[in-house]
Prior knowledge:
The complex is a heterodimer of chains A (118) and B (110). With 118 residues, chain A is an all-beta fold. Helices cover 0% and strands 51% of the residues of chain A. Chain A has no helices and 11 strands. Chain B has no helices and 11 strands.
Amino acid sequence: GAVVSQHPSRVICKSGTSVKIECRSLDFQATTMFWYRQFPKQSLMLMATSNEGSKATYEQGVEKDKFLINHASLTLSTLTVTSAHPEDSSFYICSAGDRNRGFPYEQYFGPGTRLTVT
Amino acid sequence: KQEVTQIPAALSVPEGENLVLNCSFTDSAIYNLQWFRQDPGKGLTSLLLIQSSQREQTSGRLNASLDKSSGRSTLYIAASQPGDSATYLCAVSGNTPLVFGKGTRLSVIA
Lengths: 118, 110
């Protein structure tokens, strides 16, 4: 149980275009989803937290107009990187949790999406 | 602000050795601590989760300890195997979402 998927696993796009990454909880209701970014040989840095049906909460330094997050259902959250630039190339990982299970609730991680902007 | 440090950054050992990975955190007000494994280019696999009230957790050849008051945790791997080669991440959960360390890159040489 507690499986989280991400799609696509890899994406290459041209500078200036937008890319959408999906994060799905396959066998549980994810009231909360988290989006992380990981640069090579660095740790995971939290970008934003999204609760189903609400606007996402972004961490300091993360541009909310550039990284659009939608969490419209209990099983799906999307991250759209708008007007992508080479410096946005990174490994994006989502995680999902169910706050109805009591705090702190465990987060289950997706397999990640490798974004390369050329 | 919570900060998590992992030492060493990289470790190479011969197969069969027992080893210890270290994790320290600056704010002891945590709910739990988790150890993850990450293979190159892959997502995270949760290995062990220790609640703040616990001192250790064991799973197979892995044993994780937690000393909340001193802000330290260790991950002990017994009888290491080449398949254990990966990056091991430590993360703590408190009033803020999970805060990760930079990880320890482990190589087990056959």
